[in-house]
């Protein structure tokens, strides 16, 4: 595993564009710290300070930070599809196989890289959440501080699942731009199917089925925190109550899709004449 990971990291770090995109991918989540310290003076009428509204207290900070940090995953998605596009355009995939790397090891090297960068991103988010929470929150009890850290697991699984999808699309079309276009098309197709199901069946049934779609299942891992913030300010409003927890079956669905995407990537490579 380490040999395959080292091989892939060497390829990425020798590529200037990949290095820049990886750097951006890891730097952007730190903007949550800037967001937490944001202080806006509205013409002297009042001052908006997000950190003083309890938005970054424990345990809600784990939910809010992972949700917003997950929106930056598209930068590393470009790296993932570029990994495959460069392999085909530079003929390095053929050379690697000639040098003794099996097709299974080739796909595993990509997957190990995806898991590695997802793990590094998750550790960074853990540090960011802990730092912001300790600064703004008055909670000092360890059990309360680390409550809801399951959002970190959801964040990690979400990244691995999404990047595995990007890997499959890169293998499918062999070109970075086309792979990203297919990703956007998949998003549109999922919503078209949802609309058809809602029309033919009913909205509740359509919602349940849609939660099994690849992109939607990844989105559902970390639900939007806006209603939760509103509930904390208006606790008596029952209309705002919703289920924002991370559920085991949501994690299982995304892990299932991850396994499917890696397997399909391997099958594509195995059947192709390079």
From TrEMBL:
<feature type="transmembrane region" description="Helical">
    <location>
        <begin position="111"/>
        <end position="136"/>
    </location>
</feature>
<feature type="transmembrane region" description="Helical">
    <location>
        <begin position="60"/>
        <end position="84"/>
    </location>
</feature>
<feature type="transmembrane region" description="Helical">
    <location>
        <begin position="246"/>
        <end position="269"/>
    </location>
</feature>
<protein>
    <submittedName>
        <fullName>ABC transporter permease subunit</fullName>
    </submittedName>
</protein>
<keyword id="KW-0472">Membrane</keyword>
<keyword id="KW-0812">Transmembrane</keyword>
<keyword id="KW-1133">Transmembrane helix</keyword>
<dbReference type="GO" id="GO:0140359">
    <property type="term" value="F:ABC-type transporter activity"/>
</dbReference>
<feature type="transmembrane region" description="Helical">
    <location>
        <begin position="20"/>
        <end position="40"/>
    </location>
</feature>
<feature type="transmembrane region" description="Helical">
    <location>
        <begin position="151"/>
        <end position="170"/>
    </location>
</feature>
<dbReference type="Pfam" id="PF12679">
    <property type="entry name" value="ABC2_membrane_2"/>
</dbReference>
<dbReference type="GO" id="GO:0005886">
    <property type="term" value="C:plasma membrane"/>
</dbReference>
<feature type="transmembrane region" description="Helical">
    <location>
        <begin position="177"/>
        <end position="197"/>
    </location>
</feature>
